[in-house]
Amino acid sequence: MKRIGILGGTFDPIHLGHLVPAQYAFNYLHLDRLILVPSAMPVHRPRHVPASNKHRLAMCRLAAANIPGFEVSDLEVSRVEPSYTIYTLQQLAQGLTPGDRLILLVGEDNLPTLHTWKDIRTITEIATIAIMPREKQVAADFAPLRTILGPAKVDEILQNRIPAPLVPISATDIRTTVAAGKSVRGLVPTTVARYISEQQLYRHTLDPIEA
Ligand code: ATP
C-alpha cells in the first residue's frame, strides 16, 4: 500500500516555492513517492518566452535527483494532445496496486478555478486533493464547486491544507530576475541554477520586470 503524491505545473522553472511545500507534504502526508509532472505548454500563448518541454523536464529531473522519494514523469510533456490532469491521474492510476492512494497537491491559488478543471468530480474520486498554501490568498467563490462535488467534499478539500511555511517565490520572479542579469542561486536548486545559466534560459522575457 503506497501513498503517492502528484504535483503538476509548468515548472518554468522549478524553484524552492515548489520544492519546500512538496517536501513538507511528503513528510506530513507520509508519502512514499512524490511525482513531479511538468505540463506541456498551455494552448494559449504564454506571455513570456517559455523554456521548451525538454528544458523544463530536465530541470525537474535535476531538482528531484537529490531528494529521496521524488521522481519526475514525462507523461504530459510527451503527450501530443492537450494535457488534462484527469488523463494524467487515470494513466498513473493504471500502474497502481489495490490499496495505493493518489494525493494530488495543488497550490492554493488554484482554488478559485478548481470547478473549471476537466472532470473535477472524477479527479476527486481517483485522488485526494491536498492544498499547498500560497502567499497570495485569492478570494474564492466555492458555490460552483459545491454544486459539482457537494458541500461535504468541498469542506474536506479545504481542510486538507498542508501546514507548510509560505515560500513567496514564483517562476515569474525567477524568470524576471534572470532577465535582469541577477542571481537566482538561492531560489532554485544549485543544479537548476547552473542549468539555467549553461543553457542561457530566461535571458529575454516578456514578463514585466518589477522593481
Ligand atoms: P508562474 O509564476 O509561471 O505562474 P508558478 O511559480 O506559479 O509559475 P507553476 O509551475 O505554475 O509555478 O506551479 C505548479 C504548482 O505549484 C501549482 O499548483 C502552484 O500553485 C504551486 N506553486 C507554485 N509556486 C508556489 C509557491 N511559492 N508556494 C506554494 N505553491 C506553489
Describe this structure in words.
It is a single chain. The protein is of the alpha/beta class and about 210 residues long. Helix content is about 35%, strand content about 15%. The protein contains 8 helices and 5 strands. Strands 3-2-1-4-5 form a 5-stranded parallel sheet. Helix 3 packs parallel to helix 4. The longest helix is centred in the first third of the chain and has 13 residues. The radius of gyration is 17 Å and the shape is globular. About 35% of the residues are buried. The model has no long low-confidence stretch (mean pLDDT about 90). Adenosine-5'-triphosphate binds next to helix 1, strand 4 and helix 7.
Nearest-integer average pLDDT = 92
- Total helical segments: 8
Give the names of the bound compounds: adenosine-5'-triphosphate
Distance between the termini: 49 Å
- Order of strands in the sheet with the most strands? 3-2-1-4-5
What structural class do the secondary elements suggest?
A: alpha/beta
Give a count of the beta strands, DSSP E runs of length 2 or more: 5
Shape: globular
N-to-C SSE series? Answer: EHEHEHEHEHHHH
Contiguous uncertain segments of 5+ residues: none
Strand content is 5-15%
Rg, alpha carbons: 17 Å
As a percent range, the share of helical residues equals: 25-40%
The main β sheet shows up as: 5 strands, parallel
